[in-house]
Design brief:
Blueprint (H helix, E strand, L loop, with lengths): L20 H27 L4 H24 L8 H28 L4 H28 L8 H24 L4 E3 L2 E3 L3
Antiparallel strand pairs: 1-2
Length: 190
């Protein structure tokens, strides 16, 4: 019996499987962490040549674009470079992560006016980690998710046809008849 399902277009290359959630998360950490380390070195270097705020903004934009490219090709295995729509969605999640870490730091300074470096690092790294997990989920579930074009009712119908065909094929084998099953319909060989 041949299983009949509507084909769902994939953004992956033929023969290429998309990585699972844990593999994607590990890749996300490596890519994001690597770009983060490069950015942490680039901002002070550029800050010597221009205002720090401008250097930080420039490195943030370039880092976000680079991360989106890496996430499309490597982290989520789409097999294609991201278009502007994915870049825009990805940058939205980066802005949300930036706002979350900034809010955490503002709350820290409101609670402890002179928190010390250990508190600053603890709060920032915790907020950054949580924001990173949130960003990963947004990217995996919305930005780089595989597109589904089949309507749920169509998939349900196809599943019902497959089950019905399986039942008819089993019944034909038990009864010893020569019925054949093809795309959910029974054809008698009588």
């Amino acid at each position: 019996m041949q299983s009949h399902r509507l084909s769902e277009p994939s953004t992956s290359l033929p023969g290429q499987e998309r990585p699972g959630a844990l593999s994607s998360f590990a890749r996300f950490v490596v890519c994001g962490g690597g770009v983060g380390l490069l950015s942490s070195a680039a901002v002070p270097a550029l800050g010597a040549m221009m205002p720090w705020v401008v250097a930080n903004a420039l490195v943030t934009v370039v880092g976000t674009l680079l991360c989106t490219e890496l996430h499309a090709l490597f982290t989520f295995g789409t097999g294609a470079r991201p278009g502007w729509r994915r870049h825009l969605k990805s940058s939205g999640s980066a802005v949300a992560a930036y706002l979350a870490t900034s809010a955490a730091m503002l709350v820290l300074y409101a609670v402890r006016p002179a928190p010390g470096m250990a508190w600053e690092q603890a709060v920032y790294l915790t907020a950054s980690g949580l924001a990173g997990i949130g960003r990963f989920l947004v990217l995996r579930l919305f930005v780089f998710a595989e597109r589904r074009t089949a309507r749920p009712s169509t998939r349900l119908y196809d599943t019902a046809v497959d089950v019905g065909a399986s039942v008819r094929a089993g019944r034909a084998r038990i009864l010893g008849t020569s019925d054949s099953v093809e795309l959910g319909t029974v054809k008698s060989a009588a």
